[in-house]
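[User] Once you have settled down, look closely at the record that follows, and write a paragraph about the fold.
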Amino acid sequence: MIKRSLKQIAEMVSIQNDITPFADIVISGVTIDSRKIERGNLFVPFQGEHVDGHDYVIQSIHNGAAAALWQKDVPNPPKDLPILLVDDCLVALQELARSYRRELSVKVVGITGSNGKTTAKDMTSSLLALEYKVQKTEGNFNNHIGLPLTVLGLREDTEIAVLEMGMSGRGEIEFLTKLACPDAVVITNIGESHLLDLGSREGIAEAKLEILQGLKEGGLAVLHGDEPLLMERIHRFKGNIEVQTFGRSDTNNLYPTEIHQLDQGNSFKINASAETFELPVLGTHNILNALASMLIARHFSIPFEKMKEGLRRVKLTNMRMELVEGKHGEKVINDAYNASPTSMMAAIELVANLRGYDRKLLVLGDMLELGPQEEQYHYQIGEGLDPDKIDFVFTFGVLGSHIAQGARKTLGEQRVFAFMEKSELIKELEQHVNNHSLVLVKASRGMKLEEVVKALQS
């Protein structure tokens, strides 16, 4: 993590006050949460709707923070304390991260996409860690605040940083990539997330391709080659970059030649190696994320034979195709972190094709930010279910009720349940599971369906 004296910080960020008396104080790491202060931290206060971090500056310094920023339009900065007066705390945080990135010799891999970017980040990190000192974005620190904090958390001896880049609108990915200056980037796919803000899949593709704006000269761009919206636009890109593609079709640089679904994951072969790779991650769609990661690893001179080890030990961030056991012995796939029509259909396909279960149940909630056609997208999910492979459907939420409407068309009234109260859903669900059941739990993050998983376990 960043370790600099306040004198050095003042050279990296525009400071409005005289810090001479505190110039030799050294900060170690940065935090925006006064409850998580560690000794030596620089505390960055933000003003929220209900809480102002400036109210906790003095307490944070008493709790061990070495110094704190203070936004100049906030009155009464404390005297005789190591306070750095700045025009805007968020901008100062971002400037500090940008300056620190320039001082590091670290290589950066930037990853974005509508679905799968966190999974690809985890896989890429696992492969690169075979030969390098690697750090990656933790949790959901992938936005205009989280990414600067991730950069400031990089150790000086880190060789490769794998940074996830999220967005909700145009210009956000461009900002993040220009801050991170990646040496290589990945776009996992183009889905339907953020249709509400961007209006069309074409708009989403253009927003994701902003990641190229920060890519270093001669850097590598790894793209989903089966996505025409990406391939049409990459051919119009004027920069000097290398492009490698992955996908299911044999027109890509890397594609699977064999796929075998296993109880706890998949095995597969690729066109560029005779090796058989095992991936302890559910869902054949995740093989595509693995292919993207493999292209990055090869770019950094890791041979395919060695990648077998890295893929075998991949551990995904929680609530992403996470297989757990319920109290009745049922198996539960916790994929409650996020959802879009593309990712939900992929998860349902996985459940439908898994063998060894007498009863398969879907617990599906609202998919958010889909724009004017959101009800239709939900209805189509339910309508597309195979009644011979799915036994029961439980939905949660206003939009989830449209999944139920579509499901009743194919499964009938008796096998579909729609709820607006989570407790009622859980009560009914527990009447239908046994030790030979498989349950998929999936919705957008805001629906908090992990509470259903915890109820099944507790």
